[in-house]
Amino acid sequence: AAFSKRSAFCIASFIANWAIHTSTDRVLEPSTGDAEFLVHAVKRLRDLGGQNPSVFGSELHEWSAEEGRRRVVEAGGAPDITVGDFFERPISPIHDAVVGNPPYIRFQDVTGPQRARAKAAALRGGVALSGLASAGAAFTIAASLHLRPGGRLGFVLPAELLTANYASEVRKFLFER
User: Fold this and answer.
1) Which of 76, 93, 94, 124 is most buried per CB count within 10 Å?
2) 70 and 59 in contact (C-beta within 8 Å)?
3) Residue 48 in contact with residue 20, Cβ under 8 Å?
């Protein structure tokens, strides 16, 4: 458990350092969980001279959002973490960096309104996802739509996104953006 916690720490730190360029960068984590990436975003923003930087997130579960808020405050930041389905969040291309570790749940395992919202979110980016895709593919597309021109997406993604046939439209979307 200590190794995986340390690995997550290193990956989140690396991604935040890569994605965040200035102390005023606006940062979003679309699947916040306990805010590991936002904690590192706050550290990076503070290292760049930010004072009590605001960071933004969406989290499906209130108890995780509360833990995330606590951790961001503890790190010296001001959390703005909303509770709800990220796919229902209005698209607002105002962020300089979107960071995180989206869920990899396969669409075969997601049913009903949640699946429909994920697929609709991808369609807003012009990508029709197949039933073989994961929720991570939908998160990748939807999160990208929240970036300003020139913004940076720093996600932990499965290698299959680089090679699987179902992901070709996702790759095309990312290359074109």
Assistant:
1) 76
2) no
3) yes
